[in-house]
Amino acid sequence: MQLLGEPTGNKIWTRKHLLGLEDLSPWEIRTILNEAERMLPNSRPGSPKLNDLAGRMVVNLFYEPSTRTRVSFAQAARRLGADVTDFSSSGSSVSKGESFIDTARNIEALGMDFAVVRHAVPGTPHLLSHHIQSGIVNAGDGAHEHPTQALLDILTIRQRLGRVEGLTVGLVGDIAHSRVARSNIHGLKKLGARVIVCGPPTLIPREVIEMGVEVNYSLDSILNELDVVNVLRIQFERQRGGLFPSIREYYRLFGVTAERMARAKPSLLLLAPGPINRGVELTPEVADGPNSAILDQVANGLGIRMAVLSLLAQAEANARLRNS
Ligand code: NCD
């Protein structure tokens, strides 16, 4: 019998959780990208809904602020026919002292099948996977990983430039505090891209250098080599201060401006995970300019999150089939 979820070749998807891109194989990453492309036409209101998650409950368990990721996961789950519940720690029994695991166990008792988890502490989704039965998607754990963001970045690159392999991608900004940078590095390297991280030395930790990327502290010196620039936000909320002299100086050295774009390849693709700080990491004219794919990224996030939820559900169905 053919098992469900066989998008390419004769391999099947077996993962029950998506915790990061570090553990994924290139085949698994391509499978998610291909599934996302297939699902994008069904991602918009008015298009036919799919029923991959009919009768299932997806819960957003968010312990950190979010706009895009949260709305996108909720919408993706609805487009697959799931019931969706949004939990945020503020206003919940967390303020009465309830632990994270107890909270999740209680929500599971209400029927949760999939938990989409965002938490300030690295490893929280991994920890939770040992304590509950539901499938878990990491929607950002501290400065560790944010796999669906990197997948939607990579999908946008593949759509706009036709490939990922052989491209030079610059990750510019606050690498130290960026889970988006870490997941991008894992994903891009597995698909054969050249990755350069660039920012003030105080924002590029040794641990990232050890991930096998090139490091450069001068945006101007790498600008004309880049096919893609992914502009990362200065994450003031994670910094304890004093990591660079001033915002004005950061902007002068690393701000992506129209003048810098004019010195780059005309086809340079500009990405940013958002939220963007206009006038700090990039100027409004660049953010809204012809090289920018920032809103395409957001739209692609729906396809990626539909694909991930659907594949996790298929893995579960396959496991049941095998055990029956
Ligand atoms: C990112 C995040 O939360 O890590 N945003 C997002 O998910 N779209 C990056 C950021 O906050 O700068």
Please, could you describe this protein's structure?
With 324 residues, the chain is of the alpha/beta class. The protein has two domains: 26-145 and 301-323, Aspartate/ornithine carbamoyltransferase (Rossmann fold); 147-298, Aspartate/ornithine carbamoyltransferase (Rossmann fold, 3-Layer(aba) Sandwich), CATH 3.40.50. It has twelve helices and nine strands. The chain has helices at residues 26-39, 68-79, 100-109, 124-129, 147-161, 179-190, 206-209, 219-222, 247-254, 258-263, 284-287, 294-323, and strands at 57-62, 83-88, 114-119, 135-141, 168-172, 194-198, 214-216, 228-231, 269-271. It has a five-stranded parallel sheet. A four-stranded parallel sheet has the order 2-1-3-4. β5 (168-172), α6 and β6 (194-198) form a beta-alpha-beta unit. α1 crosses α5, α2 (68-79) packs across α12 (294-323) and α5 crosses α6 (179-190). The longest helix has 30 residues, at 294-323. The radius of gyration is 20 Å and the shape is globular. Residues 1-7 have low confidence and may be disordered. It binds N-carbamoyl-L-aspartate (NCD). Residues 68-69, 140, 146, 149, 179-180, 233, 235, 273-274 line the site of N-carbamoyl-L-aspartate (NCD).
For the structure shown, list the relevant keywords:
4-stranded parallel beta sheet, 12 helices, disordered N terminus, Rossmann fold, alpha/beta, binds N-carbamoyl-L-aspartate
Compact overview of the structure:
The protein is built from twelve helices and nine strands.
